[in-house]
Amino acid sequence: MQKAGIIGGGLMGSGITEVCARAGIDTVVVEVTEEAAAAAAARVRGSLERAQGRGKITEQDLTATLERITFTTDLEALADRDLVVEAASENEQVKLDLFRRVGALLEKDDAVLVSNTSSIPIVKLGAVSGRAGHVMGVHFFNPAPVMKLVELIPSLTTAPETLERMRSFVTETLGKEPIEATDRAGFVVNSLLVPYLLSAIRMYEAGYASAKDIDSGMVLGCGHPMGPLALADLIGLDTVRAIGVSMYEEFKEPLYSPPPLLDRMVEAGLLGKKAGQGFYSYGEGR
Ligand code: CAA
Ligand code: NAD
């Protein structure tokens, strides 16, 4: 797989783009508007510059990596790709529309179309794509350049060869460590993580403790790299909410249901770190 396409250049799409391009892959990123494409390009460049500043890559690596990436708003630019990773917003209708359109335009019979969805059923995306055997979930973790894990999620209709091709791609080409999960909303990690994050939000909403003390409790008491409210801010509160909604729809488990405070924050545009404000404020340089 030498030619990749990434749909969506937000938090995850830009990170996955960096991972692919650093692995030597020609990568096309498709965004919805010129502004969003420019923001995606700035995110990838900023991350590479930080890596260079820390001595992890050379200036030549940075230049060569950026030369492998094209940012566009034209979905047709994905036609000649060997692999397309969909990393658009966590919205089922958006993803169904993309799988329908991209499934129809891929030129190579064996091109693989995967979703980075956190919780939307893979089988539904395969069904509308017209190439269900070549569709599966490939779930990266945030920040994608740092986190080693990738969840591989074959659906009922994924061909075994597709799973094996993606396993060898993420392991050998991208240097990640895969685990395999079944096609249930939340897969392995979010099934454990999201009820924990939602419980922390409920705790904060009920006035148990300050955000800082809830987070310090888990960092200092349990050795987590960051507390649950800071982690929800890092993921994006719209995304946390959308994952909770999908998981609740599937299992009707009250712990998966987003608390009212999370709804209100998303409605107010307080989406966490990417918006500059969530449970914490993120000023310039913080
Ligand atoms: N892009 C690239 N590299 C990054 C980065 C980014 N966005 N953020 C941090 N890094 C790198 C830094 O360059 C640094 O690398 P070196 O040590 O090699 O120099 C390293 O990561 C550590 O960074 P910092 O020292 O700046 O900060 P930190 O030690 O506080 O670590 C963190 C930051 C990696 C985010 C850490 O706090 C952490 O692991 N947090 C938990 C993240 C987590 O749980 N992610 C999963 C979210 S759930 C999910 O992704 C699934 C879903 O569907 C929602
Ligand atoms: P984000 O909000 O940061 O970015 C989403 C991007 O998708 C935006 O830039 C938006 O313009 C773009 N987009 C929306 N519709 C599009 C379309 N039709 N065509 C092209 N681009 C489109 O979201 P994110 O955090 O990057 O999440 C993306 C996906 O990755 C979601 O499915 C999410 O569940 C999943 N995910 C998120 C995390 C996380 O921690 N944020 C971790 C793993 C997986």
Brief description of this entry?
The chain has eleven helices and eight strands. By secondary structure, it is of the alpha/beta class.
Commentary on this structure:
The two termini are 37 Å apart. The chain has helices at residues 11-22, 34-53, 59-67, 92-105, 122-129, 160-173, 189-205, 211-222, 228-235, 237-251, 260-267; strands at residues 3-7, 26-30, 69-72, 83-86, 112-115, 135-140, 149-153, 177-180. The protein is globular and about 55 Å long. Helix 4 (92-105) runs parallel beside helix 5 (122-129). It folds into two domains: 3-180, NAD(P)-binding Rossmann-like Domain (Rossmann fold); 189-275, N-(1-d-carboxylethyl)-l-norvaline Dehydrogenase, domain 2 (Orthogonal Bundle), CATH 1.10.1040.10. It has 286 residues and is an alpha/beta fold. The longest helix has 20 residues, at 34-53. It has an eight-stranded mixed β-sheet with strand order 3-2-1-4-5-6-7-8, with helices on both faces. The protein contains eleven helices and eight strands. Acetoacetyl-coenzyme A binds next to helix 2, helix 7 and helix 9. Nicotinamide-adenine-dinucleotide is lined by residues 7-13, 30-32, 36, 87-90, 94, 98, 116-118, 139-142, 235-236, 239, 274.
